[in-house]
Design goal:
This protein is α/β, with parallel strands linked by helices and 728 residues long. Helix content is 38%, strand content 13%.
Length: 728
């Protein structure tokens, strides 16, 4: 058997973090014992992939055909999983990063005995089917994460591997390597498209620094993409690239002989070798022929993303010895493949015994495990949130956020995170908490160890986003990550997927407006907040002061079914005197009456977010002095506000008060729904400039005077301010 290896970087003999040893089911049977039924099962997987795409009329059959041996090997021989309990905590995780090849996963779920039927494969890409075009987390049993945008899955897998280590550190740090019930592997299959996307570089580099020995990535190097031969745009040695990162790299070349030979035992040996390297993530370059064994369309771009056609399917089935009818399967083959159920349940039983033994001696750890498994917060946890005294000079909301994190650290051990090389600017470091880093890489500034708490992503926003999603979807902890708000654009794809999967990731984005001043227009997020509000399922919170920031964190943590973005100031903002104005608890409702009109019946409503709330309060005083009853509404989160019942929304923003002014240092777009047809906006509809923040606010109209003028304009629209005859 051939096993080409790249071992120029020697592995350490002492493991940093050993995923599993004696509890590894596969390790008890080191011989592959590949049978004729296994070979027929692989060919069945190919046939099902062809037929499913043909019936749907569209899809991606080629990769599912050529990856059938690798996927079957993982699900039927390598991974520890229980098809009868897809959420079993002790399972290995599988990430199909090349989500377009969804049948690679769906077919194995069917063959392994998950609750996916043959009819589900026939319903590929159809309305309300369990087999959508790309795998969707929470929709199909056995799908661990939503993958679609290429490269994201690799980052998700890195996050899962990191999460597994952090969870072990919380619950069972002292057990010998490989003997903890919380040890498991993360496997991922990736394609050329995943490797080419920049997010794979960012997350893969982090995985190397973290020495994630529980991560194994199989790279399908078939040299074909939609535009056919990948040499048109790609010529790097991917294996050497990963070796340069510091991964353990092997090459399994099925294309190395003529005729093409799918040497499954060679891949098996490579996976076993990868699992034995516990101080590095492992990368297996698997050289395949896409669409094998289709006689005419194999190794072409045509088979990547379109149906084979009846004639090619007939010819392929003839080569494989299958009947020429759709979805022809042998009951004996399915009976054989679904022995995975028995093996999975046996492994689950063995694991449960180990878990119960651990729980019997760790009552406190068991209670924590149960709480974390359901994302339940401890009783009274919010009492740890600090209250900030009124202060005219105030505090930047990013600084308040940092103090809040320090206060939460002792009561929420599951909360962990960091930033994209901006810890001091984002205030994302919990004081005194060690970094999550192999001890040899810790620094004087950031000491830490493998079970630490503070994350360091480097200047890799995109990778950070995908890793945070992987941490969250793995379960057991609550992650957050920070950068400047304007650089959220670098991670938008990850944020959108976080919202799509309803993951409780917290994004801490600071430097939220032209208030960053001298850094200039490249760093001033003029349109960013509105653009983020356009992501369905993402809660965007821009608190007005330190106390609203505390409640923003509370809301973010209490919402376990969606991500939250915190948009925080660099500059100090006044800490509002809550004895004079309403409690900041209204933040939890997204918008609330901060200052009521003197008459109780406002003629105009000023609605503001973030640092501009203080400006609105000053403008209100001037309008009241002029005899105009004025209400100020603080609106830190539009999404939370519109989740309130209509009676509350109408109480805060009565339909009868059409004179309204929005005040936010960004574009107007997301405020039109709130201010209505008679409303005015104090906004900025162009890029900023480099100058001190007070100058920019004045020059761009974020002043009480301008807010008053806009209020007058809105009042005029509704007939509250009338002109006088000139006598002409």
């Amino acid at each position: 058997m051939r096993l080409a290896r790249l071992d120029r970087v020697n592995s350490k003999t002492v493991p940093l973090f050993c995923p599993r040893s004696t509890t590894d089911v596969a390790a008890t049977d080191p011989v592959l014992n590949w049978s004729d039924l296994d070979r027929k099962a692989v060919d069945t997987a190919r046939v099902l992939a062809m037929d499913a795409v043909e019936m749907a009329g569209n899809g991606h059959p080629g990769t599912a055909m050529s990856l059938a041996p690798a996927a079957y090997l993982l699900f039927n021989r390598v991974m520890r999983h229980d098809p009868t309990d897809p959420e079993w905590a002790g399972r290995d995780r599988f990430v199909l990063s090349c989500g377009h090849s969804s049948l690679t996963l769906y077919v194995q779920l069917f063959l392994s005995g998950y609750s996916l039927a043959l009819d589900d494969l026939k319903a590929l890409r159809q309305w309300e089917s369990l087999t959508p075009g790309h795998p969707e987390y929470g929709h199909t049993p056995g799908v661990e994460v939503t993958t679609g945008p290429l490269g994201q899955g690799i980052g998700n897998a890195v996050g899962m591997a990191m999460s597994a280590r952090r969870q072990r550190g919380l619950l069972d740090p002292d057990t010998a390597a490989g003997e903890s019930p919380f040890d498991h592997f993360v496997y991922s299959i990736a394609s050329d498209g995943d490797i080419e996307e920049g997010v794979s570089h960012e997350s893969s580099a982090i995985a190397s620094v973290q020495k994630l020995g529980n991560l194994v990535v199989i790279y399908d190097d078939n040299e074909i993409s939609i535009e056919d031969d990948t040499r048109i745009a790609k010529n790097e040695d991917v294996g050497a690239r990963y070796e340069a990162y510091g991964w353990h790299v092997q090459t399994v070349n099925w294309r190395g002989s003529d005729p093409y030979v799918e040497d499954v035992e060679e891949l098996w040996n490579a996976i076993q070798a990868a699992k034995a390297v516990t101080d590095k993530p492992s990368f297996i370059v698997l050289k395949t022929i896409i669409g094998y064994p289709a006689p005419k369309k194999r190794n072409t771009g045509k088979i990547h993303g379109s149906a084979l056609g009846a004639a090619e399917i007939t010819a392929t089935k003839e080569l494989l010895g299958f009947h020429d009818r759709p979805f022809a399967i042998d009951d004996e083959v399915v009976k054989h493949t679904q022995q995975a159920v028995e093996r999975g349940r046996a492994a689950h039983t063995e694991w449960q015994a180990a878990f119960d033994a651990w729980a019997a001696g760790n009552a406190e750890g068991k209670a924590l495990f149960d709480r974390l498994a359901t994302r339940t917060l401890p009783v009274g946890w919010h009492k740890a949130l600090p209250e900030f005294p009124a202060d005219a000079k105030g505090l930047a909301t990013r600084a308040a956020s940092g103090k809040i994190l320090e206060a939460l650290a002792p009561v929420l051990p599951e909360l962990w995170g960091g930033s994209a090389d901006l810890a001091e600017s984002n205030n994302t470091t919990m004081k005194g908490e060690p970094s999550f880093i192999p001890a040899e890489y810790s620094t004087k500034e950031f000491p830490g160890h493998e079970y630490g708490r503070t994350l360091h992503f480097g200047i890799r926003e995109h990778g950070m986003g995908s890793i945070l999603n992987g941490i969250a979807v793995h379960g057991g902890t609550r992650p957050y990550g920070g950068t400047f708000l304007v650089f959220s654009d670098y991670m938008r794809g990850s944020v959108r997927l976080s919202a799509l999967m309803k993951l409780p990731v917290i994004f801490v984005w600071t430097h939220d407006s032209i208030g960053i001043g001298e850094d200039g227009p490249t760093h001033q997020p003029i349109e960013t907040v509105t653009a983020l509000r356009a992501i369905v399922g993402l809660d965007v919170v821009r608190p007005a002061d330190a106390n609203e920031t505390a409640y923003a964190w509370r809301g973010a943590l209490e919402h376990t079914d969606r991500p939250t973005a915190l948009a925080l100031t660099r500059q100090n903002v006044p800490t509002i005197d809550r004895s004079k104005y309403a409690s900041a608890e209204g933040t939890l409702k997204g918008g609330y009456i901060l200052a009521e009109a003197s008459s109780g019946h406002p003629e105009v409503i000023l609605i503001a977010s973030g640092s501009e709330v203080a400006i609105a309060l000053t403008a209100r005083e001037r309008l009241e002095d002029q005899g105009t009853p004025t209400r100020v509404v603080s609106m830190p989160c539009q999404e939370w506000f519109f989740k309130q019942d209509l009676s509350y929304q109408h109480h805060v923003l009565p339909h009868g008060v059409r004179a309204r002014v929005s005040v936010e240092a960004g574009i107007r777009m997301s405020w039109d729904r709130i201010i209505g047809d008679a409303g005015e906006a104090v906004s900025i509809e162009h890029y900023g400039a480099s100058a001190p923040a007070p100058v920019l606010f004045e020059q761009f109209g974020f002043t009480a005077d301008n807010v008053v003028a806009k209020a007058h304009a809105s009042l005029a629209k509704v007939g509250k301010i009338l002109g006088e005859t000139t006598g002409n």
